Every structure is written in C-alpha cells, then in structure tokens.
Amino acid sequence: MDSAPHALPGDLDVVGALRALQRRCAQPMATCLHVTVQPHALVVCPLALAGAHGSVHVVAYGSIGQVEPHVLVAPDPRHPADREALLIRFGADLATYMDRCRAAGDYPQLWVTGMPTARHLGLVAERLRVHNATTPPGLLARHLAHFAARFPVAGQQALHVASHVIADHWATAEPGGPGAHLEALLLWFDAPAAVAGDGALFEGALAEARNRPMGVRTDPLRDTALHRAVVAYNRARRSADQPSQGGRVELDAPARAVWDILAPAARHAYDRVQRAVALIIGAGLAPLRGLDELDAAEADAFAYAMDALSAGRWSGRPSTRSMARSYLMRQAAQENVDAALVLGDRVARARARLAGTVVARTVVAERIVGTRDGVLVVRTAQPILRVRSGDQMYWADDTRLRLRIEDIRPEDVADGATAVVILSITRGRRSVACPSPGAAIELVPAIPDWGRALRETARLSARPDAPPWAPARDRLPGVDAWAPARDRLPGVDA
Amino acid sequence: VAVGVLALRATVASLGATDPERLVPARAEVVLRWRGTGRPSLRVIEQVDEVSIIARHIARAPALLAAVEVALPLGATLDDPDVVMALPYRYDADCREACPLAEACRRQAAAAGDPIIVGATGRRALAAAESSTRALALLDDADTHGNADEDELAARLRAAERMLGEALHG
Fold first, then answer.
1. Hey, are the CB atoms on B157 and A15 less than 8 Å from each other?
2. Chain A residues near residue B163 by CB distance under 8 angstroms
3. Do A6 and B156 touch (CB under 8 A)?
4. Which parts of A245-373 are beta strand (E)?
C-alpha cells in the first residue's frame, strides 16, 4: 500500500497562511491575475448613516490612480434636500462615466473596499428605484442596479471587492469571506519592518487596522462626535428655516463639522482601495487565460443593460423567463470560471488535484504507462480520486484532446500508485500529438464553453410561456380534494 | 459518530474491558446515497481524525473549567475588563461578526499560537500540532519528531508546501 505522505484538501491554503503568519507578510497563492483592472475604473467608497440603511452619508470616488477623490457629504441624509444634492452630483458623474464607456464600446468597472460596500450599493439602488428613470436619482438607481445585478455572476468584471481580490491572490492569516477587512489585509503587505519583526507590535497594528471603517459603517469611536455634529446641523437647519434667520449662511459651519468627521474616513477607505489596486497591478501576473472572454461577456451585459434602459425596457419586476435566463447564465458562468481557473492557474489546479472542490471532480495526474490504439492507460497516486467510468476529461496541455474514462482499477503496488485509469480518446486524435508512454499528464474534468450561456438562453427563448404540463394559474391541482387534518386532541382527552 | 465512538468506549471501559480502543474501532458504517440518485449505499468510513479531535476537546474541558475558576476571584464581575481578559479565550473567525470582545480574544489566540488564527480550516488541519508555532516547527525542521499524529501532519504539510512551490514556480 502507498505510504508516501499526501497533502489533504485545504492543506495548500493552510501552508500559505502558516508561512504568512511566520513571516508576517502575505504569500502569493495565484500564478495569474483573475480579474481585469480597467484603466478607467472608478473607486467608490460610501459610508451610510448609522441606522439609516441604504443611505449615503458620504461618498469618496475617483479613477484608478487619482490621488484626490471627489468627496460628497450629505450632512443629514434623512433630509431630502441633503440626500438629493449628494445623489444628483454622484449620479451625474457616474452617468458621465457610463456614457463614456458605452460610447467606447467598453464596460464600466467599480472597485469597493469590501463585501458590505458592494451590498450597500445594491441597497441604495433598491431604495432609489421608486424614482422615475428620467430623474437623476432614478437614473442613478438603474446604473447602480446594473452593478448589483452583475455582482453575483461568477467572473463578472463590473464590481470588484478589493479585499476579495487580494485574498484571492495572496495568503494571509486574516479571516477571508464577507468579513474580510481591507485595512488589515493590506498590513500584511505594508507593515514597516520594525512592526513586522515583532509579533506583539504586529498584532497591535492589526487590531488598530481592524478598527478603521472599511465597510459602510462609520468609526464607532467617533460616532458620538458625529452624532453631536448631525444634531447641531439639524438644529441650525431648523433655525435657518425661520424667516428671521440668515438662511444657508447659518448652515455652513455645522455642515462643515459633519464633513470634517466623515470625509477623512471615506478618503482613507478610498486610499486603501487604490493601494489594493496598485498591489494587484504591481504583482505583474499574467492575465488568466479566458479573461478576454469574460471582458467580452461583461461588455455585452453592459450594452444589453444600457440598451434596455434607453428603450424604456427596464423593469423593476423581472419576468419568470428572465429569472430563469439569469439563473442559467449564472450557472454557466460559474462552471466556465471554475474550468478556466483550473486550466490557467497552477495553484487552482493543485487545489483541484487535492480536493476536487473547485470542480466537481478531481484532476487526474500522473504518468502514462501504456497506449493502445486510441486508448491511454494512466497510473495515478492521488489519494482522492473523484472520477468514475463514463466521465469526460481533457488533456490540460492541449484541451482539443478529449477522453472518456472507460475503467478505473484500484491498485496496491509498491511504486505508490493507487489507481490505474483507462481512457479512450473521443476527440482530437488526429489534431493533437498524443502523449507518449512515460510522459506526465494532467487531465481536467471541464474546459470553458463560452458560448454555452447563449445557446441555453436561446433554447429557453424557444420554449412556450405556458407549457402544456403547467398547472392552471388560478389554483393548484387537487386542492379541493385536500381535507383538513383530523383533530386528534378529542381522542386524547377521552 | 465520533462522540458515539467515545461514549461506547467509555461504556465498554466501565464494564471492565481493558482495551476499549480495540473493541470499539474509530470506524463507522454510514448510509449514504449514490451520487445523483436516491439509492442508498452502506459504506465503512474511518473516523480516526474526528475521534481524536473530540477526545482532545474532552480532555481539555476540565482544565478549562479549572482555569475559569482560578481566573475569577471571589466577588469578580464581568464588567471589569481585567477580569474578562483573565478568562480563557474562545475565538473563532466568525466571532468578529458579532462579538465586541473578538479582537481581544484574537490577540490572546495569537499570543497562544492557536491555529484558529489561520482560519477554521487551519484549526481542523493543524489539530494534531495544537499550535501554529508547533505546526511551523514540524514544517520547518525535518528532525522535529512528535507522536504519530504529529509526524503524519508534518509529512502532509511538507507535501503541501512542495506542491505549492511547484505550482508557484513552475
């Protein structure tokens, strides 16, 4: 039986995190860039008023590389005039950017700090969509809704979360997922040598970093001061509304006090996203094979959304058919991105070899021990092999070669092999030079099929709205036959 | 399953058996369904890791309770930050979502070299080493030897690092 040590699923990331912890420095975990960074992308950092979900108290935004962001503050976003002043200005700038992208046949891209901010943009869109699309807030709602709609789609390039992109390419000992904190993540790159060289200092710096607002909430330590400033502003506003008072002049100072508290927080978040983008660009990684197709899909999605908006086809309530279409497209996108990652990123492929968690089945890798006419015999030492007879596989080096697993025979031999996999070539036999005996080979379970989503949605369009087997709309079949459950309590009492 | 195995071993031991581990192996017969179908299948699954993790936790529990007792002097109240900081920490990566003490617990966990610092996966994967410091020692020094679990973990981590290096550097 094979006694050689084997890594287990998840061990690659654990080792990466351990090394990061030891060196107090982020460790690379990708061999190619998984995202496109649009040179004209906008960094957007909003903060909400505590307790007013979907509000924008302050927003800092600007292009990639722009040092000084535009900072807009609504002294009290619960007040319609303040709220609309901010939204109209921000909406106009976003509309200009989107129009420019549309004219160039390109697609817009936003970068935000973390997952809460990405969700917040969707919430803002949801709150504003009651406005007519011809009004500035209504138009902003539709523009933001485009990014919110694209966000759940795997491989989308419209809305990037900086903390996720960083965690996707580097290992640190910071918690990932929705709670990932960008400031703390960046400390693993930027800690001064004196801090990185001392465990206690580094932990202290991490704790301090995590207290900085990087989501949509303001700094809890400064919220009391902010609360006082907002109360003072509202008092001044009520006074200014009195005819005897001096109008806007009276409001400038209290509004400025709110600005002084909020603007630095938003500006700091903006700086951190810019730093994250600079790190991603500066990593010098080659783009993932397949990013061009993802860019093209993004441009198509953007053009489709903008055409719908121009033609007044924008609907607040998607139809069943459009929901089914978006489900199909999301599923196809996920499978394509998974396949592209396994093919293009060697670390992702190593993870797939270990676990098969990136894709449904694992990558088969080892040496060819024999070939017959159209048949490959592969011996593998992988401890976990999630494949079965009948599965299709592709040669990772040249995916034109498609094979089908005919048989898997468990082995227990001295050279460490655990299974022999017999595959027949089903496509590419004439166009690809077949690997020879002794060669190392990696077989992947899927390759990206970029046209699949379109084919499936076309097939969906051809289906009738009400298929003959659908139940009547007004009632479920057999409802009349249902009888209420018999009350068993009297029997118990008796 | 692991809890059941340990409970059965304890029962067997209380009945006078001298070798409960041999009598109750860490193995379970689990009913699973065949992939893509509703057809059931009965499979034998090894539960060695799960049983050893639960056993370690149970072994630690009395020590933790004793530590709590020692840390709480007579009349201590939990509104005193010093008392809270003196308590044994319980940190998980999800704590940060809800608990204001998460940061304090994290710092304690980091100081203790708790593997939870590298995430929930890390805690599971490094359970045999019990600390990230020990895991790094096992990873770095081929001459570091521990018990069988630690030796296996060391071999696994080195294999993973080799694989990661090959992937990153071609």
1. yes
2. 7, 12, 350, 353-354
3. yes
4. 364-372
Owner of token pair 């109240």: B77
A334 burial class (0-12, 13-18, 19+ CB within 10 angstroms)?
middle
Query: What does DSSP assign to residue A287?
Result: B
Residue B46 contacts A where some CB pair is shorter than 8 Å: no
- Nearest-CA distance from B14 to chain A in Å? 36
Sign (positive/negative) of CA torsion A188, A193, A197, A200?
negative
Interface TM-score (ipTM) > 0.85: no
Is B47 in the A-facing interface, judged by CB distances under 8 Å? no
CB-CB neighbors (< 8 A) of A386 in chain B? none
The contacts of residue B58 (CB under 8 Å, 6+ apart) are: B6
pLDDT by residue, tens only, chain A of 494 residues: 344 567 777 889 999 999 999 999 999 999 999 999 999 999 999 999 887 888 999 999 999 999 999 999 999 999 988 999 999 999 999 999 999 999 999 999 999 999 999 999 999 999 888 888 888 889 999 999 999 999 999 999 999 999 999 999 999 998 777 778 999 999 999 999 999 888 889 988 998 898 888 888 877 667 888 999 999 999 888 887 766 554 455 678 889 999 999 999 999 999 999 999 999 999 999 999 999 999 999 999 999 899 988 887 766 667 777 788 888 889 999 999 999 999 999 999 998 888 643 323 344 555 555 555 678 888 877 777 777 888 888 988 889 999 998 888 877 555 555 678 888 889 888 888 877 777 778 888 889 998 888 888 888 777 655 555 555 555 555 545 555 555 555 555 54
Write phi, then psi, for A420 (nearest 5 degrees).
-115, 125
CA distance A348 to A189: 22
B150 touches chain A (CB under 8 A): no
For residues A83 and A57, give the distance between their C-alpha atoms in angstroms, rounded to a whole number: 8
CB neighbour list of residue A284: distance below 8 Å, 6 or more residues apart: none
Residue A127: strand, helix, or coil:
helix
Give the separation between CA A308 and CA A300, rounded to whole angstroms: 12
Report which of B49, B47, B65 is spatially closest to residue B4, judged by C-alpha positions: B47
How many helices (H) and strands (E) chain B has is answered by 9, 2
Using CA atoms of A160, A166, A170, A175 in order, give the dihedral in degrees to the nearest 10: -110
Both tokens of residue A132? 């007519």
Q: B141 vs chain A: nearest CA distance in angstroms?
A: 14
Q: CA-CA distance, A344 to B96, in Å (whole number)?
A: 34
- What DSSP string runs through A12-68? HHHHHHHHHHHHTS-EE--SSB-S---TTPEEEEEEPPTT-TT--SEEEEEETT-SS
Provide the shortest C-alpha distance from residue A349 to chain B (in Å). 8
